[in-house]
Every structure is written in structure tokens, then in C-alpha cells.
Design goal:
- This protein has 24 helices and 21 strands.
- By secondary structure, the protein is an alpha/beta fold.
Length: 740
Amino acid sequence: MSSLQALCSGLPLRPLPENRGRQAGVPHAPVRTPGLNPAEKQLALRNALRYFPPDVQELLAPEFAQELQLYGHIYMYRFCPDIEMRAYPIELYPCQTKAAAAIMHMIMNNLDPAVAQFPQELVTYGGNGQVFSNWAQFWLTMFYLSKITEEQTLVMYSGHPLGLFPSSRSAPRLVITNGMVIPNYSSRTEYEKLFALGVTMYGQMTAGSYCYIGPQGIVHGTVLTVLNAARRYLGIEDLAGKVFVTSGLGGMSGAQAKAAVIVGCIGVIAEVDKAALEKRHKQGWLMEVTDSLDRCIQRLRVLQLGLQQAPGWAGLPASLGLCVLSYFANLAALGEGRCLAPSGFSRPLPVSVSGTPVLLLCPSREARKKKEVLSLGYHGNVVALWERLVHELDTTGECLVDLGSDQTSCHNPFNGGYYPVQLGFTEAQSLMASNPAVFKDLVQESLRRQVSAINRLAEEKFFFWDYGNAFLLEAQRAGADVEKKGAGRTEFRYPSYVQHIMGDIFSQGFGPFRWVCTSGDPQDLVVTDELATSVLEEAIADGVKASVKLQYMDNIRWIREAARHRLVVGSQARILYSDQKGRVAIAVAINQAIACRRIKAPVVLSRDHHDVSGTDSPFRETSNIYDGSAFCADMAVQNFVGDACRGATWVALHNGGGVGWGEVINGGFGLVLDGTPEAEQRARLMLSWDVSNGVARRCWSGNQKAYEIICQTMQENSSLVVTLPHKVEDERVLQQALQL
């Protein structure tokens, strides 16, 4: 077992660690199929060996070549550390600066097996969200961070630590870029080759920027999304008895089960990987697990069979001998008897069983009728679940689902992000590696079937949205019926959750703000929760707009629920959606608590890249930008640069994340609060820019709510001067000028 001291001593070469290969009993990334030619395979091997001196290259070359052959990538399993990988208290890391120790704390959290999706392949979430490309990079990065001073910056090129470079105390200690490929070569095919060569990496969002906090982040996002979906689509605040159907229990998607419980609805979540499903069940995030579609439906509905004659069915004698049947136990016995009714089952219907008339009365949803809170994991393909729901609708007239979405990793649909309904899990993994072309065809057929089922349900009072995982984009590419007539390129038959649900939140400057207590002490997290709640309550008391108050109240509720639901997995972290004013106030309060030792160690501030300013993504974060700039990435790049200029401890800029490689540019930051006045000043400057940049861009695109927020912010800060748009009041001016 290695120590942290040994872990920070550089690559272990003399002696080399034992090659233990792939560890049994832990999830592993799917086999990649980069399609390298012989010359490219040599290049991949040469690139891997350059981390090692010549005297060990002859030993390492054959095993690296075997990894490339078997798994499509050189992960360097021999160098997977023999240590309990987790976020250790900051004081245990050997370092020259606490900022570097905080970064090491965050890196090890991203690779904690309780957090990471495929820990041995250095994948944190999303199926291919890498922290590093190989284990040599991990060792070197930890070594550099243990040596870095306040006058150096560590530069990271797609997982590769380029080295320590002289800089200043005010500069970031770490600058990360991931996947910065020339645009004309930023295709999926090129990516697979470049990753196999070890020269680029898909960092997702917070995987490659070392800011992931486990599934808690997406739990909160899903809670807010479902709450706001209920307000928008169903016109309700109370979700008791409402049914939410979705898929995915792996990395980030694993949060959906817990989110369903927190909002108080009935969540049914499909997952093909039994290991992922069992992990969430053991965590207590899934209340029930089944591999039976019958059981799923039964938990939603029980047919009650009555003994009284139904009003309105003339001609049925009162003396009929009636038998009471269990619908599910005797489904086959119904034979040709059909159970048909108008939607809602306002009256019972007669059928015949072996010649005996039976009255089937109103079905009631078992969980809905009792208004239970339930998270039910279905071990199976979500397409089968959607199609079964359609079958129930077509045969009984009742739609058993109110809200629906999808959180499969559709940004990576042909390499383990989406599994076709035609194949079992193991069979699909085998075909994925042996015949990628056939596998792709099956995936696209499965997407078409899934959309067809969703379309049928949407004819009823059922509402579906795209969760920003490229589901509708990939479905469109597969030929599914998702077209929205007369719409732009970023719009589909169903909205992105940003377009309809979260977009207005971003326009008001609200987004996923988070912090990590590097002491590792749960009591420090309790203190930060109290501080954040107090800050938001004081803001409400001082008076805020109704829309802002609603968001603050949702987040106060969230903090209280988060502690009760034991959402911490890995580091002692918390997330909430806050605007600029709230983020700055919370940061200042936490920094002051560190200064007076109420909090024992530095706190890392961060956010999801999926935020107000951090991401340009035309099919997600900027899908509600309608001035033609949705495909432009100035905002995310400027945010990265601006954060670095204003005091961030580290910054990251990525190609890919969320909706996939080549579809998005996004960035993030880490800011270490250490209780000093300098830390407070950095937080004030950087957090203000980090929000205002995106609000200003959204204002310029024509968003009225963003216009109001940025005008208010300018009134509060005379140093902020933003170019405001003028509306074209008379559309005839355009038509006349263009002679339309």
C-alpha cells in the first residue's frame, strides 16, 4: 500500500510496481475501437513509452501493446496506485502551497471508486470523461503539485502535465486544456484515433477539470429541473403521485433516483448495467429494484375488480355471477376479452372470461393512489419500458407516466453510452468491440423505437424533455421523428431542458455553484450549509424579485433536504443554484469563517461547467440563444481567460462535455478560500465576472430577463458597463429594406 508521500515522489521506476492488470470486481470502460493502422499503433506505443527511461522500455512495451490491442487504449494498468483512492484531508498532502494540496484533494476525489464510473480507466463519469489519459500522467501531476510554489504554474495539455512554468502569485497555479483539436478535425472518428495515440482527451466537464463532487451535483440539477417541469407542464408545486420515467443510473445519471425521492414523486429509472443499478441500491438511492416490466407496471397500477354493476351499461342483468380476478395473475385467462375504455376510466367495462361476465372497475395507480414517494430501478432497457407503457396505454386507455426524460450517455452512443434494446448488456459490449458498424445500426434502430414510443405517449397528457445528453440530436441523426416544423437547427419536437425549464434560470444568473471542505470533516460542511442558508434568508428578508425569491427558497429547501438525504459521496461538498449576489455573499461568509477558525481548513469554490457563462453548447446551455450565435464559443473562451485574470486558483477549457465531442466548448475553475483578505478580493472579482459575462451575452442575444438582471447589476456596480441591445420595434422595417 502506497502512502501519499510515495504518491507524490514521481513515477515508481526502481523497482517497477507489480503489473496487476485489470482489477476484478470493479466496473471497466467499454473496449474502444480506434481503427489504428500499423504505423499509428507504433506511434501510440512510442508516445506511451516516452514517459519512461530506456532501461524499462523493453519490459513495458509488450504489455502496453497488449493493452492497445485488447482495450483500444494504453491506460498503463501496472501504474494504477496501490492506495485507497479518496480525497484525504488537505494537511496530509506533501506540498509547498495549500492551493496545490487542495488540487490534489480534488483529483483523488475524481478517482475515488465510490465516485468514479470506471476508476482504473481514469473515467469519472459520462462513460468517457477522463481525469487523465493514463496513469503515468497521474503520477507526474501529483509530483509536480507537491513541488509547485506560489510563483509557478502547472500547465496541462489534455491530461499530459507539460511542466511547471515561472509565473506570479496572482496567476493560476494550474491551467488545463482538454481536447483543443483544430475544428475541422474535431470529429468522433478523429477523436478515437487521437485518444488512442495519447495526444488528446475528452475531459467531459468536471472530470478533466478536477471539480466533480459525485452525483450530488446532478441530484440538485435534476431536483430543480423536475420541480420547474412540474410548474411549467403540469401547473403544480406538489409532485405527490406524479410519475417520472427516465433512464441511466451510472455516473451522473445515478442521481435521478435520489432526485425523485427529494421532489416527492414516483421515479422509474431503467438501467442495463446491473452493477450500476446495484451500486445505487446499496447507497440507498434506489428504494426498489426489479427486472420485471410487469412489476414496474404493477407498482404504478393495480386493477381493482368490483362486484357492483356499472352505471351506464344497459342490458346487463343485476344477477350476473361475477368473479374477482387479479389482472396480472390472470392476464392470459382473459383470452379474447378486451379491456377498453376512454382515457381516465370514468366507468367500468365488461369482459368475458371463460363465458363468465366480469366487470373491471377503474384502475388506480398503487403508488399514485397512496401518493407514495418511490424510486424504482428497472434492470432492463429503457426502450422496452417505454414500449410497455405504450402497450398499457393502447390496451387500457390510461397513460401511466406524467413526465419523462433520458440520461443515457448519448453524447457517446456507439461506444457504451447507449445500449440497443435488441441486445443484452454483455452481448452488446461484445458486438460493440467486434463489429462497430452493426452495433451502430442497432443503436440507431433502438433510438427510432424509443422516440416512436415517446411520441405515442406524448399524444396524451405526458411531457418529455431532452436532458442535454444529445438524445434528440442522436435520434435525429438516426432518422427518428423528432423534427419540429419551421424550427431552427437547435430546436426539436421536444425541448431541451435549458430551452423550457432552466434557460430562464441561467438568464437570471442562477447556476450550479459548489464548494468542497478540504478538511474532510463533515462538521465543516454543516457550518457552510448554515452560512449559505443564512445568506439566502437574509437576501430574501432584504427584498428580492419574486422570481429570484422562488429560486432562493428552492435552494434553502435543497440544503435542508441534502443533509437529511445523505448526499455526500466522496469529498465533503455541497452544491446549490445561486446568482451572482448569492455566490459572492456565500464565498465571503465562508472565507470569514475560515479566518476565525470556525471552518478548520481551506474551502474550494467551483461550479459545474454547465452554467450561466461556462459553456457554449447549441443543443444545451445556449439552446435558447436565438440571435444566430448559439454555435459561437466566445463566451466560454472569454470566461476561461477572465477567470484566470481575476484570481482563480485553476482554470480549465474543454472541447466536448454534455452533448459530446465537437458539439460544445466549456470551461470551469477552482478557487481556494484560505481566510485571507486576498482570497476574499479574488472571490469578489472572479465570481462577479463568472456570472455577469454570461448574463451580458444572453442580454445581447435578446433575452429580456437577462436584460433586466444586467441592468440591475450595472446599477449596483458603476465599474460594470455593458453594451445593451436596441429592439427592432417595427418588423416592417426589415421587410421593406429587404423588399420582402
